Amino acid sequence: MEDKKTILIVDDEKPIVDILVYNLQKEGYNTLEANDGIRAVEIATTEKPDLILLDIMLPKMDGLTACKKIRNSLNVPILMLTAKDEEIDKILGLELGADDYITKPFSVRELVARIKANLRKSELKDNDKTIIENNKTKKIIVGSLELDLDKFEAKVDGEVIDLTLREFEVLKFLASQTGQVITREVLLEKVWGYEYYGDIRTVDVTVRRIRGKIEKDTANPKILITKRGVGYYIKTN
Fold first, then answer.
1. Which of 167, 199, 210, 224 reaches 20 to 30 Å from 92, CA-CA?
2. pTM greater than 0.70
3. How many whole angstroms separate alpha carbon 77 and alpha carbon 86?
4. What is the DSSP letter of 236?
5. What's the half-sphere exposure (Cβ side, CA atoms, 13 Å) at 145?
């Protein structure tokens, strides 16, 4: 199949790799394997997989460092595999550009569901007047924020902002419903694609990353606003 997706599995525990390879190939995916962080970066940058499963505890180079290096050159979903008590590492992984994490031990069924959700392309409904077509290019413009949906490019005051695909999708979803407060649970469902509620901290950390890139003063944001106790929205003016 031409559209067969490739997943890079990075873990130094062979039994885990073998189980994941078996189940993912059974689901119709191609798989690549790496057993240390250095090899993971090499394979990711040369083979350019569609998604990466990346363990945190790795020899030669830890998963967090590998995540940062991969994210510098590749914009694909990265799911961190973490141990149950690695709370700080989960947040650090998200801060470094991972899209999500799943805690060991995990069910293969849940992992496959998350993989499918992260690979599924988010569709933007053309139901907002801020979506315009100009020379066949779709854009969303809200105040100083401009999103080019074809290029997956964001600009603030005309300056291009370097966002991961997940960060862009969050902004796109919020901007397509300008002024409406969107809950964390809805963002998790619509942007991450989960049919169940995951950890809403994933949303909070991603929003914090976005703010650090698009706001001049993160303590006093002018674009991406928090409605305390409810969720987030894009300010219209």
1. 224
2. no
3. 21
4. -
5. 28
